[in-house]
Amino acid sequence: MRVLFLTPQLPYPPQKGTALRNWGLIHGLAERHRISLLSFRSPEQEVDPAPPLASICERILTVPQPERSRRERLWDMLTTRQPDMALRLSSHLYDQELKKLLEGNVFDVIQIEGIELAPYLDTVRSLAQDAVVVFDDHNCEYLLQERTFLTDLYSPARWSGAAYSFVQWQRLRRYEERTCRHADRVLAVSDADAAALRRLIPDLDVTVVPNGIDTETYRPATTRAEDRENTLVFTGTMDFRPNVDAVLWFAKDVLPLVQADAPDVRFLVVGQRPHRRLTPLRANPAVTLTGWVEDVRPYFGQATVYVAPLRMGGGTRLKLLEAMAMGTPIVATSLGAEGYPVENGRELILADTPSSFADAVVALLRAKKRREQLARRARVFVEEQYDWQVIVPRVEDVYKL
User: Fold this and answer.
1) Nearest-CA neighbor of 81 among 197, 148, 175?
2) CB contact at 8 A, 267 and 250
3) How far apart are the C-alpha atoms of 175 and 255, rounded to whole Å?
4) CATH class given for the domain over 2-212+387-400
5) Residue 186: how many other CB atoms lie within 10 Å
6) Interval 4-44: pLDDT, tens
7) What are the two backbone dihedrals, phi and then psi, of residue 232, each rounded to the nearest 5 degrees?
């Protein structure tokens, strides 16, 4: 089939959640289908697509990501009823490239990757009436903002953020519902997200296509660094609010409890663009903010325990698949592991309070055999259920419905 992907950034190199999912889907589908790509290009990405991406796509067109200042975002929030995410990638140039592409080519499937690309759904509908239009909802976005609002509401210092999330929550309910209604097929990354979308549209036909991972690329380290002992690792884009909240909560409420039993513990926060709210953590000698790194896999190899202390968000966390594939034992909140059919104590440890989270971390720091047991089970879990070779055929089935 001839498949056109619309993506918010070039999916290669796959260094964050959205790109990881898009690369996994495109790479897998390209083995049997003809893939075209129209993508925004982030400032740090080269104009020419990377050879691994160029080699599997029939055509690739890119335009630069638009820039919106905080003042422009505030003005839009006050003067429109659109959610922020509907305006984030608003680009006349992208729309023009899309129109030229659709007027000059015929596609069997057009896949819209994420709600930021939903503004271009009207153009797709008007110019590609015979194509199957697939909306891939990477997160149930209204649910993410609802949870963020409820979390920030309990912290007076975060009430401005809570107000923003409340407005976005209400607007996204309407916008996400409209987007799902105008697509032919809707994909969700988890049963929880699918259920949340059905609360908006009870009769919505939504298919769960989970996030996946290339288990050949992410393999357990054959040797572990000696400095790995008592090393805790978190990975993620560090200006993303759920990640910022997770790290602050862990550093403030959990890490001191861990240090009471393991004074030499260190906490590595691995990810690009650390938010200014994280700056005070640099004064803590036990905490390291790495900023951008070329490859996160060595950090999973350094980790005694991977921590996922998330308290807000939606979808599923690809970081957990990376850790499980790399054979790194995990302690996560229930929300952090949401969407994965894991069993507490089998593939990872779940804990939701500061004391229980700290106790779980300390127990794993002291028990090498227990860590190895969790790591083995987690690796089998992702091999059997979350390798892209297992997941991509589900997407092909959706195309054929």
Assistant:
1) 175
2) yes
3) 39
4) alpha beta
5) 21
6) 999 999 999 887 778 889 999 999 999 999 999 999 998 87
7) -105, 140
